[in-house]
Every structure is written in C-alpha cells, then in structure tokens.
Model the fold of this input.
Amino acid sequence: FGVNFHLTQALTQTLRVLLLSGDGAVSPLTPYARRFLESLQLVTYAAVVYGVWAMFRPVVYRFQIQPHEMQIAKRILTQHGRTSLDFFKVQRDKSLFFSQDGEAFVSYAVGRNFAVVLGDPVGPPDRMREVVRQFADYCRDNDWGFGFYQTLPDFLDTYESAGLKKLQIGEDAIVDLPQFTLQGRSHRDVRSKVNQLDRSGFHAEYYEPPLSHGLLAELRSVSDEWLTIPGRREHRFSVGSFEPSYVRSTPVFAVHDDRGRVLAFVNLIRSYRAGQATVDLMRRRTQAPNGVMDYLFTKLLLHQRQLGYTEFSLGMAPMSGFHAGESATVEERAIHTFFQHLGFLFSFKGIFAFKAKFATRWEPRYVVYRSPLDLPKLGLALRQVSGRGRSAAPTYSASAYDTSVSAH
Done:
C-alpha cells in the first residue's frame, strides 16, 4: 500500500474495509494488496449472508412442506394412525419431519425456539425408536428444545430408552358405546335434563357434509356468540377453529329448540382408532338453557352407537389427578398439585366433572421431555403455538354445564 501503518491505523483501516466504507487514500499498489482487500470484503459478504441464514433458519421449516409430503403423511396415518388426535397432525399449522426411510413422521410446531410435537410419531412400531432419535438430532441442529405433547402410554419405553422423561398431564375420557346408558342413580341428573328438554320440544339433528350455506351461517352465529363469553377464543394445534371451509366439510350434530333455532352444535372429525368417533368444536349460544350440552352429547352418543361405532373419545381432561394405587414420581405429584391450584387460570375439575358424566374408562396422556428445566419452556411454547399467547391469559372456569373449548 506504500504506507507504514501503526497498529491502531491498521485496525481502523481493516474495520473500514470490513464495513464496506474503505478509505480512498489507501490504494493497493500490488495485485497481492488488491486481493487482500477483496478477501476482506468477501469475509463481510459471507458474514452477512450467514448471519441472515442463521437468524431465519428456525422459521424456514414452515415453508418446506410440499403437497406430496402431506399425501405421504396421510398415507402413513391411514396405515398406522391410532388416536383421535391424529386428525390434527396434517393440518396447516404443523410441520412434518420424516424418518430417513420415509416410513414414519413427526408432526410439530415451533414456538419460542422450542419444538412441540403433537402426540407420538406415526409409523410402524419398530420405527419409533429411530424416528425419535433422528428428530432429537434435527432439533439439536436447529438449536431447539423439544417435547412431545399428549403421548399415549404405548411408547413410553421407547422415550425412556432415548433418555427422555414422562409426565402424566391428564386422561382421555372414553365412552364404551355398547354399554352407554342413562339408567341408574349416577345418571339421574343428566336423564332428568334430557327428558325435560325433550318435553320442551328440543331435538337433535345430524348433518352430513357439505353443509348448506344457510346452516353454516347459523352455526357461525352460534360460534360468534360463544366467542363473546369471557375467556373464549379460537385455538389451534391440538384443536380446530371455526373456519367456514373446514366446518362445512365435516359432519355436524346440532340441538334445535322448539322453533327450529340452533342452540348448540359439535362437528365430528375422523379418529384413526378403529371403531372410535370423536368431535372437535363444541359451541353454544350464551342464552342456551342449562343442560343443553348434556342433552347434545347424550343424543350424539346414542346416534354414534346406531352408526356402528364402538367407542367415543371426549378428549383429554387435563390434570385430573391420580387414582388409588397409581404410581407417580414426586416430580409428577408436585407439578399436578401446583397446576390444580391454578383455578384462576383453568378449572381442571370442571372439565373432568363434565366428561365423567359420560366416560366409562380413562386413558392416560403424557408429555415427554428431556429435563425438568424444559417443562416451563414447553408450556410457553405450547401457549404460543396453540394461540393462547395472543393476549393476556383469560379467567376460565368450566362447570359441569359449560364444557371445554373442544374435545381435545
């Protein structure tokens, strides 16, 4: 360069070149000097490109699902699906991770740099161990934490062999339809409400898709009215939301009053467990009479039994506690006790009480995680991906009459 630099001057000129604001007074006099300046500028360009890539890499995955991949996932679900939750694994808010052999996949969403997997991986049982390991490696490559939400007990050994822990978070309420009845003292209150509404001219109707525009508009009216109740909002991830194209494409079971007006409804979705039926959205009008949801589900369960279904999933009752003789770690019991005292956020007992009116058995559901430090991260991520984090947490109290936002 024909200049004798002091150390401070050398650093200053180097920074100017790296920041692409070189000093015109410093000019290369040799090819070597020119290549040296070009190499410094190349370092700057490479750093900028790498910085942008590293910054946005965690969100690029959202745009990588191709239509043929979705078709592959649906094929695997048809062959190996096992729960009512599987329906939501191929919805638009999910990303898919396929095993290297393409025979199994994981459905997940990322919030707060944490990947939340919906349920278990789907695929042949002998592929579960490998797909869990591959997904864990994938999350480490992306610098994500990860956890599995609402897993079955079927693969707990697989998770434990991968060094993961489990925590029971609730139980899925199952109705054995052939044995379902309102007879007996324990069902006296429900039976009384059903008979009372029958005498008042209420009736239930089952609608096959596609729904008419008139019916869809009335269902939308019910849903909009339901959303005005304090604490109600649309969610996603493990539930659906009222999107006209979605609701119109699903069967609907609705309760009408004596004037034919729709007071409450549910939409039915596919369960990938053989012989099982289930619902997603559960909506009612604010002025619907007490007991309308009991009436709706009683008629729905009887109707599904007539269609040949053998069981019905009412969805998970979260943090419903432990039964006598059931083993649980100190960690599990401490977390359950903590959440069950958060009545100002969520009435776990109310949801359990409603589903217990109909359930004939309960199946445990778990979260699977790496360490106890991941549990708060999992909770925050789940709050974000499910849409609960869009505003301040509402006060929510579910009574035996006012059920949860959805079956799941």
Observations:
- Residues 342-346, 391-405 have pLDDT under 50 and may be disordered.
- The first strand starts at residue 95 and ends at 98.
